[in-house]
Amino acid sequence: MRTTDTYRDLAGYNAWSNARIYDAAAALPDADYRADLGAFFGSLHRTLNHVLVGDTIWIGRFTGDATPAPALDAVLHEDLADLRAARTAMDARIAAFVESLDEAALAARFTYRTISNPADVSQPLGPALDHFFNHQTHHRGQAHALLSRLTGTAPSLDLIAWQREAGRGGVVARSITTA
């Protein structure tokens, strides 16, 4: 069952995961950050821009913002610091949006126009939010793979790790040994 708490948690996890990915990206040489490694959007830089593009499109749909949607492969920010600032601002906007929701809003229908194959779609908000957060996770997974390829390691993005840190799940129990 979808609840407003579910989406608040997903917004928190989203911001946490993005911060970890951006920290790792900032540690890369610029040439590696921008290298076309054959991912769907080519580089880590273009992949991170795409996640922001997707979020910009969807949050606009959710809020009724009539600003024209950018192209799906648009580079919104060339500079990583500027991209990160925009990402942080978007994560705050996402958190504020989901904080404003109630159960009736999740069930309410909204209508939007698709981009790739233009059509008007009407659906309840809840399932669209599922897609929204899943889209972010999907492309962060690609970013994670690119970081792993470039450095041999990447930060953990496990939801359960965020849940533990945020106090939303289990806690790590200490081992007790007896002599």
What do you see in this structure?
The protein has about 180 residues and is mainly α. The protein is about 60% helix and about 5% strand. It has a single domain (about 5-165), classed as Four Helix Bundle (Hemerythrin (Met), subunit A), CATH 1.20.120. It has seven helices and two strands; from the N terminus they run αααααββαα.
Question: How are the strands of the largest sheet arranged?
Answer: 1-2
Average pLDDT number: 93
Number of helical runs? 7
Q: If classified by CATH, what would the architecture be?
A: Up-down Bundle
Oligomer: single chain
**What's the CATH H-level superfamily name?**
dinb family like domain
User: What distance separates the N and C termini?
Assistant: 47 Å
Low-confidence stretches: none
Structural class: mainly alpha
The tally of strands reads 2
**Biggest sheet overview:** 2 strands, antiparallel
- What count of structural domains? 1
The secondary-structure element order is HHHHHEEHH
Q: What is the CATH class?
A: Mainly Alpha
